[in-house]
Amino acid sequence: MIDLIPYFLNGLIVGSIYGLITIGLSFIFGILKVINVAHGSFVMLGAYIAYFFFVLWAYPPLVSIFAGLAIGALAGFALYHAVIRPLRKAGEMHILVALFALGSLMAELARIAWGPNVVGFTWNIGSISVSGYVVQLSQLLGAIAALIIALALQLILYRTSFGRAVRAVVQDPVGAQIVGINVERVFAISTAMGIALTTAGGVLLTLFIPVGINPYMGDPYTLMAFVIAVMGGLESTMGAYVAGLIFGEILSLGYPLFRALGFAAPYQMSLFVGFVILVLFLLFRPSGLFRI
Amino acid sequence: MKLLKVENVVKKFGGLAALQGVSLEIDKGEFVAIVGPNGSGKTTLLNVINGVYKPDSGRVLFEGRDITKLPAYARAKMGISRAFQVPRPFPDMTVLDNVVVGALFNGGLDLQRAKEVAREALEYVGLGRKADELAGRLTFNELRLLELARALAGRPKLLLLDEVMAGLNPGEIDNMTKLIRRVVEEKDIAALSLVEHRMKAVVQLAHRVVVMHQGKVIAEGPPDVALNDPMVVEIYLGKPWR
Amino acid sequence: MKPHVPIAIYLSLVALSLAKPELSQTVATVAFYMALGQAVNIFVGLTGYVNFGYAAFIAMGAYGLGVVIAYFPQLGTWTLPVGLLLGVALAGGLALAVGAVALRLRSAYFAIATIGINEALKDLIVGAGIWGGSSGLVLGYNMFQEYGRDFALFLSTTGSTVLILATGLMAVAATYLLQSREIGYALAAIRQDEDAAKVMGINPAKYKLIAFVLSSAFSALLGSAAFPLAATQVFPDTVFKVDYILDGLAVMFLGGAGTVTGAVIGGLLYVPIRLLLGQFLPAYQALVTPLLVLAVVLAAPRGIIGELRARVSPKIREWIP
């Protein structure tokens, strides 16, 4: 019999990161109704930020996360003004295609700038024992940081005037415009925030992939974020976070399960199960697990 | 048997009841105008009739058949056509092809016949010479006529007209009103037209007027009677009609 | 509408590849992108929905033929038609299943689902070790056994080129026939205003599904031609390459989405553009495709043929459908 508790703990911790990675996707979709198919490339950007801050200046991810947020916000502003806004009139197909091309462009630029090789680093600050089970302290702190960021976003959404403006725009863009909300600005800031959250997620992700940073690492995270976002209701940020925890468990518990069942590549099988979950949700409950 | 029967329809958006138990009947050959201010629920009613919205309760019957649960496209195939308030042409198609779409799917014709019917419909509304232009290039008045031609080419039994006069000048309104009345009489169909209040020309040409207010029908009858109903007079700024 | 121009271009490429076998490889490359663009156009161009999972359908074609060649050598020469059919059936069935689930939903969900198919199928094949798993199918030996040496060599050169050209030609014919029939009107209406189309009696899910299945079937034929036939091997890493969708989109958008001629012109231009830029800036070749797609979508979303059609008189428009 396999002891599943360490896998469960690990799923919860890594799930917090998956949740954070997905929040940005749900946030942007909820407000702009644009599904960011370049999502994974911004995760990749965050991972490289963490890498360079660590190897060049020895700043750990818990510090470089602020750089991730800042650079992500700038990238998000640029994304909105260069791609999304000019194409809003042309239609959804054009936005999707342009975003997809952008994601690919970012990966190729990363390859040219930082090389095609897989890089990584380990920030080792020891481990603690949770009722006999060893948990890496750095990973635990990363998971807590992700939770704090997720909660901070809720505070912004429900306790600030910007949050009120966002919610007004979501309910009725035309009405919001009439009562004097600058909808364009809300869209731009929301895109910036969404991308900032995504790159921050990419920064924290590096705590879990000591040798997995490369230009093309984003693709699986795009799919993963889609699955989680749909589970969480696609427009709900807190739903995305909670669904992230659940998905973390699926991947983490799926691994020993598929290994025990004798599959050649248990991790890939877990990812496949993720897709099956996506299809099941699309089929039976496109509105997601939670209606918030 | 009535062509269309709407029975006690309720439709809520969030907490807001846009329709609070509306009933309505239309016969073949009737031109009915639904009058009401913005937010009175008349557009919601139209959307419930042609299947864009499903009502929370109540029924919609067409030729005696319960169509409450049918999707919009199935209702269109049964003979319900609609012209939108803001014209929604397919801008990259020619004017003729726009109308062909109506004849093909709304009217259930084959392609050959659909093209003929589409040409006829364009001539009928006076857009014949614009047939080969791209629809995106028409003027607003022409787009309104295109909407009508497209709806007519579907050989409807019931024509739903969503404030098709809004934005037209008095001459164009006059022309459009006569056209609709002629359609109803010549083609023996029913038309249900939404009208912003005080659109005199339209209302006078209607056989019957239904006045809506806050999601309810508050008066109904021949134009003169319905619009001089004391409640209607009071709601519309306290001024009697005319 | 007159489809003479795109058909003439295809026929001259067929003639060229038969007359000059040494050019077969070049013709095959150009034709592959032309046909891929056309397959993408049949769904993306005609419906306005985006399928990011083309590689999965290409892979179904590749595996369909590959599996028959690898596991049913007793069929001999029959492995070719049976394999092609199996590839088309796998791709069509997959499209039918995914489309039935996801085409009912708004287009964002559909895009998500299609990105998913690609990753998921690859994960399944590698993860469960199906059809050779991560080590793929190597078919050279079996092909010699089944087809004989000469015919096998012919198939992997001229044969695959002709299959690619035939697929492209069929895709052109399909685009043309779709456009000039009832369904073409339905698709054009759905693409331009889906809600208005519904109110006019069009069932969008039905027509989108037809286009999706067709488009996937053509992608599968390309997969069969390019991998088991031409390369005599099928590896998950090469058949499930996300690049194909970007290539297909580049060809389609460059030429003009939703037109018959667009992908033909787009394909003729795309390969030389990539080669030329690759020669001058070899390190940056990978940037060409995404930059091209971005530039066309942002600056000229109607593409070459689309812009032309909007400018010329109705009479000339007839000739560039």
Describe the structure in your own words.
The complex is a heterotrimer of chains A (292), B (242) and C (321). Chain A has one domain (5-115, 127-284). The model of chain A has no long low-confidence stretch (mean pLDDT 90). Chain A is mainly α. Chain A has a two-stranded antiparallel ribbon with strand order 1-2. Chain A has helices at residues 5-32, 39-57, 61-87, 92-114, 137-159, 161-171, 173-178, 183-205, 218-232, 237-260, 266-284; strands spanning 127-130, 133-136. Chain B has helices at residues 42-50, 72-78, 95-106, 111-125, 140-153, 170-187, 200-205, 223-227, 230-235, and strands spanning 4-13, 16-26, 31-35, 57-62, 65-66, 80-83, 158-162, 190-195, 208-213, 216-221. The longest helix of chain B is centred in the last third of the chain and has 18 residues, at 170-187. Chain B has 242 residues and is an alpha/beta fold. In chain B, helix 3 (95-106) crosses helix 4. In chain C, helix 2 (24-47) crosses helix 13 and helix 6 (140-147) packs across helix 7. Chain C is built from 16 helices and two strands. With 321 residues, chain C is mostly helical. Chain C has a two-stranded antiparallel ribbon with strand order 1-2. Chains in contact: A-C, B-C. Chains A and C meet through helix 3, helix 4, helix 9 and helix 11 of A and helix 4, helix 5, helix 12 and helix 14 of C.
Please identify the oligomeric state: heterotrimer
Number of structurally distinct domains of chain B: 2
Strand arrangement in the largest pleated sheet of chain B: 6-7-8-3-9-10
What count of helical segments of chain A does DSSP give?
11
Low-pLDDT segments of chain A: none
Detail the topology: elements first, then pairings.
The complex is a heterotrimer of chains A (292), B (242) and C (321).
Chain A: H1 5-32, H2 39-57, H3 61-87, H4 92-114, E1 127-130, E2 133-136, H5 137-159, H6 161-171, H7 173-178, H8 183-205, H9 218-232, H10 237-260, H11 266-284
Antiparallel strand pairs in A: 1-2
Helix pairs in contact in A: 1-5, 1-8, 1-9, 1-10, 2-3, 2-4, 2-8, 2-9, 3-8, 5-6, 5-8, 6-8, 9-10, 9-11, 10-11
Chain B: E1 4-13, E2 16-26, E3 31-35, H1 42-50, E4 57-62, E5 65-66, H2 72-78, E6 80-83, H3 95-106, H4 111-125, H5 140-153, E7 158-162, H6 170-187, E8 190-195, H7 200-205, E9 208-213, E10 216-221, H8 223-227, H9 230-235
Parallel strand pairs in B: 3-8, 3-9, 6-7, 7-8
Antiparallel strand pairs in B: 1-2, 1-4, 4-5, 9-10
Chain C: H1 4-19, H2 24-47, H3 54-71, H4 79-102, H5 107-127, E1 137-138, H6 140-147, H7 149-180, H8 182-192, H9 194-199, H10 204-231, E2 233-234, H11 236-239, H12 243-255, H13 262-280, H14 285-299, H15 303-311, H16 314-317
Helix pairs in contact in C: 1-2, 1-7, 2-7, 2-10, 2-12, 2-13, 3-4, 3-5, 3-10, 4-10, 6-7, 7-8, 7-10, 12-13, 12-14, 12-15, 13-14
